[in-house]
Protein 1
Amino acid sequence: MKFLILSKKRVTFCLILLCLTTNLFAKELLAEIIVIDGDTVRGKYANELIKIRLAEIDAPELKQAFGIESKNCLKRLIKQSDSKVFFKFKEKDRYDRHIGWIYSEDLDINLEMVKKGCAWVYDRYVKRKVLFKHQDNARENNIGLWKNSEAIAPWKWRRAN
């Protein structure tokens, strides 16, 4: 009898572990998307309306130079992905926002924001170092926000304002 109880506990533990690890890597459909700014959207995810902060990037604030353009860039990327948009959850932040990545069928939208010069790589939180290569390319080619040689990183702008 002890063996059966122990086995049930092990099975339960394995099932919970499987569910948790599967969720860590799963992309879920994101619907009813509203772009708030260049690195934040609201959308329906798993039947819940949530606020999403795009991971690894930091876009200019709306009142900052290139802020409106950055927001419009994100809108275009989402709109041009005729296919469905998916969200990959990483964690919640101190403001209770869901942090993660958004994708269309064949597009990493967070990465595209950097490639198009619509957002900075968020140095403090970046894990994928390849983002720096794309940011350097955008800067060298004066793409997007990099047309302004005096562009200020959003985290520095927030501290000053």
Note: Strands lie at 28-37, 40-45, 48-54, 57-58, 85-92, 98-103, 120-121.
Protein 2
Amino acid sequence: MKTLKSFLFGMALFLAVTTQAQVSVNVNFGSPPAWGPVGYSNVQYYYLPDVQAYYDINASMFIYQSAGVWVHRTYLPSRYRNYNLYGGYKVVLNDYHGSRPYNNYREHSRMYGKGYHGQPQRNIGERPQNGNRNGHYERHYQPKKQPSHNNGNNKENGNGHSKNGNGNGHGNNGNGNGEGHNKKK
């Protein structure tokens, strides 16, 4: 019996010494966007002076005022649909670690007004070649509602901008009259 107790004690001691306890702490900083500036790994927010908005890297969301209220959206408002995120200056908020960077908006907008450019910045990634005709990226902007102009026709025979370039209204297949507005590749 004493031998069995000694054996079990020895096994327990052996397991305690050889087993390593692991503690994993996951801070989970989000991946910065390709249009973000190079060289900042532990930052949560950018301030975008040209559009008077913030970008939350962890949530991949823009924060801006809409009707006097700060909102979190995955896109910028439609008034900035031609804004080039790759070309615009990003103020990196190294010293802010809360959840409401807009509490400092008055100071940020005073220090970094529209058109502000500090030290030259390089982007993390390259500008994609599949942007729209102005080189801007529609997925970052609030979609603008398009009026319907099918003159009583169904989607297939509308008079308008068409997917295949053969129409003069807003039909999907553009079986209307005239020249379409499709890009030639």
Note: Residues 50 and 88 are 7 Å apart (CA to CA).
Protein 3
Amino acid sequence: MSSNKLKSVLKTRAELPGIILHIIEGEPIGDQNQLLNAIRAQGGDLTQATLSRWLHKLGVVKENGVYRVRQTVALPHVLPAPYRITLAPPNLMLVHTPPGYAVAVAATIDKLCTQEPLPKGLQGILGTVAGDDTVLVVTEERAHGGNLKAALLDFLITGLRPLHNETAA
């Protein structure tokens, strides 16, 4: 693959986590060769050994012959800090990430917030939209505020799985 094509489709290697998660969550992937081909179709170029390391870092496991993302992912092992969260009342938050990591952060928040019961402190998150280095978090209006911001920031920084697996009472 030419380096120009790689740069135009895949701006940085930092985008690989988001691309890998997107592919795995979007279609059944049975082996690493199939995943490598899907990544290459999106402009990525990496070896099987590198892919294997990324799968481990992202918490991807093979279950019933198909790769899946574990329910919870320890973000600090995948994504570097710092994170910054800006409140945008009445029901929005912006999570600022290092360049290229917003998709992986958004996917993790979305996955986390679809668990039943919801992790303690993260109730009220409706969904996310990701750019390159910013995640827009949409919340219920009544859930917005400092407590939710603090709980989300704590999760992003410490990577608790999730928040000591405590659930809302």
Note: The first strand starts at residue 60 and ends at 63.
